[in-house]
């Protein structure tokens, strides 16, 4: 056999005919043979070119035939059989050329004949594919030639006559294709002096033109290349219409003259420098002397400074910003001060605008200068007012933020931190209201003076307004160093201030945020230090607190609660519960405390400890307080019709409500609206809420006392109230806080405190109630000490209105029977 290089893929079959075939094929030196358990196991992409497949006529023969047609359409296959194949079987499964081998008729000669035939099939297929590819390329080239927007011609190199032209040539030149073909191409274009040897080497010949049938000249760019056509060499001539470019060039020329006229008449100085920082243009404002402008051409700022006798910093500063504009390829802006020989001072705002010159492929710089002398003088006059606090002389918020932004931008060290301190004076409002605004201002001035004494030159201390202060410290070594400085501030501000003949003691609450750990922007760091300050206040004031991730989570939770709480009022999610008060004398229900509860549609019951502080801080507590008063009065009205004994319902009052000018009148109108007797309502407030605005509290409760409404002081003994204010309010009831009751039977100190509170209340003619009573021992001790009323889980937890009514009826009835 003398086959060329082909690769045979044969399907395995446990039969003597398979082994005979395999042996005969392997005897062919030029063949590569691969055997497979099944032809269907062949992975596409692993088959070499010039492949011939041999597979057996079995139940899967059509599946194998389909596989070969789909995956290897260019490869022939030979159908194998151990028996003779019928015409029907060949028609159904054999190759379209009926290539097959069967054992009854097999011989090595037939094998050689069939393999040679398969090889010729492969060669014919490859030639056909190659021909199709060439034909596709020809079609593409024909389409490119015909559809090009450039004028294309094929020219005979010997005669210089046009052999062919595309559609664009017919359209632009206004000749038909028949009129163009056969003419020398020079008929359509003026003669051009070119080297004939270079004509066909692809050189671009500029400033040529084509003449149309109507006599119009079309400026073009042209190129000529030599290439074969139908076995002969031909010239491919390309002409590109550059009419628009010529028109644009003329427009640019006119525009240049126009813009130079504008630049020469601007009030600002304009100059153009090349990539070597040499001047190529300057307008009269830049240099008023015409001769000087001529002299400046191709000169630098170094030579200009020498000519005008300006200091070296003049050209050094300009070069610095020119280098920056060149490096970043961005506009740079800076201010410069120029003092001439007559000591005239001029402030200029200068911009360097980098541009790329497309023609010269070089960078240029437009120098644009605006005289800002008047503005600078005005800025200097108002700078102090704009950037400094008028009262303390410290930086104000604007200057602090500016310094902070610069510090964050310039801080490159990874070994040091930037520390933001934010603090205010504890209870400053009380100080201001009690001592007067004049003394309050003096206190702020003295605080500012003390802060200045401990600041370095690179630190910034600012008053943000009111009693809020901020400090920025740079290059803080670590968190420990930041804490030491914070403690130093706390110490110096805790020393007494001597104001108008008296010593005033103050404390502060401070929050600290460190960059980059706690933020990378001024707004973020201020927000986080402010958040940390409020955490310090929660922990008892007169301390500092670092920002932590926990605080942001608390803040997000607080915001979620605040938003949900606003909807809760609208969606009627708030409910009143009531906890009974029991008389130690009659053992009957003698009152109840109205307690608000919130059932969130998604979270379920939200603890009051979560939402009441949020309501206080956000001001929502005022709306909630109004709702509680109305709902309690409405239920009180209902209970009248349910034969419930008459007793007062105590309603908690917020300090925010007390601050409202018309609050006491709103209480009065609500009672009248629901036809409730004044003695059926008791207003319960804490010591701290009274002390938020003691004067208004006294005024409001004097008015309500005249109406007959009772006043109860909640959590007595846990706040910091003055007994003089307590006397002025003329409260009716003192409530002993649960913290003194919880260990009453075990702790002698708690018993002593409870006894003192009860005795004081008796001496002032007040009733006493103890909350948080959980066992009978506590009840009996309080009874023996003279406590009038008991409230706590010993009797009942807070109950919904319906359950409370049931409890009152059952409890009073059972008490009667004892």
TrEMBL record:
Name listed for the protein in its UniProt record: EAL domain-containing protein
Record-annotated EAL domain positions: 558-812
Residues covered by the PAC domain: 332-384
Top-rank taxon: Bacteria
Classification via Gene3D superfamilies: 3.30.70.270, EAL domain, PAS domain
Lineage: Bacteria, Pseudomonadati, Spirochaetota, Spirochaetia, Leptospirales
PANTHER family per record: BIOFILM ARCHITECTURE MAINTENANCE PROTEIN MBAA, DIGUANYLATE CYCLASE DGCP
Pfam families: EAL, GGDEF, PAS_9
Matches recorded under InterPro entries: Biofilm_reg_signaling, EAL_dom, EAL_sf, GGDEF_dom, Nucleotide_cyclase, PAS, PAS-assoc_C, PAS-like_dom_sf
Domain GGDEF residue range list: 416-549
């Amino acid at each position: 056999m003398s086959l060329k290089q082909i690769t045979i893929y044969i399907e395995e079959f446990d039969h003597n005919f398979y082994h005979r075939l395999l042996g005969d094929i392997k005897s062919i030196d030029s063949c590569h043979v691969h055997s497979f358990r099944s032809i269907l196991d062949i992975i596409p992409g692993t088959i070499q070119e010039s492949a011939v497949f041999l597979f057996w006529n079995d139940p899967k023969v059509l599946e194998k035939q389909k596989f070969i047609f789909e995956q290897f359409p260019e490869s022939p296959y030979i159908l194998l059989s151990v028996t003779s194949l019928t015409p029907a079987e060949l028609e159904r499964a054999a190759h379209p050329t009926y290539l097959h081998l069967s054992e009854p008729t097999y011989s090595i000669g037939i094998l050689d004949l069939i393999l040679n035939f398969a090889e010729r099939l492969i060669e014919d297929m490859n030639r056909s594919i190659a021909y199709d590819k060439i034909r596709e390329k020809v079609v593409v080239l024909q389409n490119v030639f015909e559809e090009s927007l450039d004028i294309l011609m094929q020219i005979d190199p010997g005669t210089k006559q046009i052999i062919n032209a595309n559609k664009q040539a017919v359209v632009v030149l206004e000749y038909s294709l028949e009129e163009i073909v056969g003419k020398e191409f020079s008929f359509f274009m003026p003669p051009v002096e070119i080297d004939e040897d270079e004509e066909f080497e692809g050189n671009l010949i500029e400033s040529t033109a084509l003449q149309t049938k109507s006599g119009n000249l079309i400026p073009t760019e042209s190129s000529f290349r030599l290439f074969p056509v139908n076995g002969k060499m031909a010239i491919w001539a390309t002409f590109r219409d550059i009419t628009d470019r010529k028109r644009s060039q003329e427009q640019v020329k006119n525009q240049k003259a126009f813009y130079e006229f504008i630049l020469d008449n601007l009030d600002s100085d304009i100059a153009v420098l090349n990539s070597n920082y040499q001047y190529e243009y300057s307008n009269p404002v830049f240099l008023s002397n015409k001769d000087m402008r001529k002299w400046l051409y191709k000169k630098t700022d170094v030579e200009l400074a020498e000519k005008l006798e300006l200091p070296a910093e003049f050209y050094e500063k300009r070069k610095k910003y020119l280098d920056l504009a060149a490096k970043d390829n961005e506009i740079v802006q800076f201010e410069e001060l120029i003092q001439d020989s007559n000591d005239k001072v001029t402030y200029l705002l200068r911009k360097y605008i980098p541009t790329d010159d497309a023609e010269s492929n070089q960078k240029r710089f437009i120098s644009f200068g605006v005289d800002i002398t008047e503005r600078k003088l005005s800025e200097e006059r108002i700078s102090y007012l704009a950037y400094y606090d008028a009262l303390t002389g410290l930086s104000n918020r604007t200057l602090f933020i500016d310094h902070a932004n610069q510090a964050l931008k310039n801080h490159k060290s990874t070994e040091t931190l930037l520390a933001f301190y934010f603090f205010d004076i504890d209870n400053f409002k009380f100080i201001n209201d009690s001592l007067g605004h004049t003394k309050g201002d003096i206190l702020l001035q003295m605080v500012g003076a003390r802060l200045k004494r401990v600041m370095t030159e690179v630190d910034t201390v600012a008053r943000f307004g009111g009693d809020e202060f901020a400090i920025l410290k740079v290059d803080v070594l670590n968190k420990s160093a930041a804490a030491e400085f914070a403690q130093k501030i706390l110490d110096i501000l805790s020393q007494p201030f001597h104001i108008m003949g008296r010593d005033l003691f103050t404390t502060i609450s401070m929050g600290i945020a460190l960059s980059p750990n706690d933020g990378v922007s001024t707004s973020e760091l201020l927000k986080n230090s402010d958040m940390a300050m409020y955490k310090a206040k929660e922990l008892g004031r007169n301390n500092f607190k670092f920002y932590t991730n926990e605080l942001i989570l608390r803040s997000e939770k607080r915001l979620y609660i605040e938003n949900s709480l606003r909807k809760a009022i609208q969606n009627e999610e708030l409910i009143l519960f009531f906890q009974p008060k029991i008389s130690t004398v009659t053992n009957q229900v003698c009152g109840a405390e109205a307690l608000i509860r919130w059932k969130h549609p998604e979270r379920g019951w939200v603890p009051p400890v979560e939402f009441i502080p949020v309501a206080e801080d956000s001001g929502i507590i005022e709306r909630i307080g109004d709702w509680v008063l109305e709902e309690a009065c409405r239920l009180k009205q209902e209970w009248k019709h349910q034969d419930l004994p008459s007793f007062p319902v105590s309603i908690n009052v917020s300090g925010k409500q007390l601050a409202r000018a018309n609050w006491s009148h709103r209480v009065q109108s609500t009672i009248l609206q629901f036809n409730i007797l004044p003695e059926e309502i008791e207003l319960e407030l804490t010591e701290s809420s009274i002390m938020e605005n003691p004067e208004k509290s006294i005024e409001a409760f004097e008015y309500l006392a005249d109406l007959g409404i009772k006043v109860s002081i909640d959590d007595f003994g846990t706040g910091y109230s003055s007994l003089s204010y307590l006397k002025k309010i003329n409260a009716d009831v003192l409530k002993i806080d649960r913290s003194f009751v919880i260990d009453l039977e075990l702790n002698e100190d708690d018993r002593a405190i409870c006894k003192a509170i009860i005795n004081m209340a008796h001496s002032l003619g007040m009733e006493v109630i103890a909350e948080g009573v959980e066992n009978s021992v506590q009840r009996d001790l309080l009874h023996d000490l003279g406590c009038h009323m008991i409230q706590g889980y010993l009797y009942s937890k807070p109950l919904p209105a319906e359950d409370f009514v049931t409890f009152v009826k059952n409890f009073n009835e059972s008490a009667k029977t004892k």
